[in-house]
What we know:
Belongs to the ATPase B chain family. By secondary structure, the protein is mostly helical. The chain has helices at residues 2-9, 26-45, 50-164, 167-188. 87% of the residues lie in helices and 0% in strands. Residues 4-14 have low confidence and may be disordered.
Amino acid sequence: MKNLTDSFFSLGHWPSAGSFGFNTDILSTNLINLSIVLGVLIFFGKGVCASCLLSDLLDNRKQRILTTIRNSEELRGGAIEQLEKARARLRKVEMEADQFRVNGYSEIEREKLNLINSTYKILEQLENYKNETIQFEQQRTINQVRQRIFQQALQGALGTLNSCLNNELHLRTISANIGMLGSMKEITD
């Protein structure tokens, strides 16, 4: 220890005190450097201890880290809340889409059934109209045939009467009919 204190106070004892050079004694040079640094700190620090300064730096760093962690936690909480809201909106939209899909399918089925029913009704009406038209045409044809048969029968009867009747028979038939009409007139009077 004596050598150590001597190296600090007896600068003239050094062999290279008059010239510039490197001191290769590591132990003595480290001690000199430490003593200079401690002296500068004590002189300029005036009572500020190195551990207090280091403690303040560490406390500041700790506070910044804690503040950053709190801010990160708050941001994380906000992000989780927004994520849950987005998931809830997504579920709601999916449920609405499913409801629209179900309603759409049921509406399509209803429209399909309505279309089928109205088509059956139209077909039934067309069938009834067709049947009525057929019946009308059959009745008209039957009436035309009857009328032709009646006309042909009447023409045949008139032709037979005309060929069978001569003038004398014709006059007698007319007088008999006039006589019958006269007797009918007397009965009604």
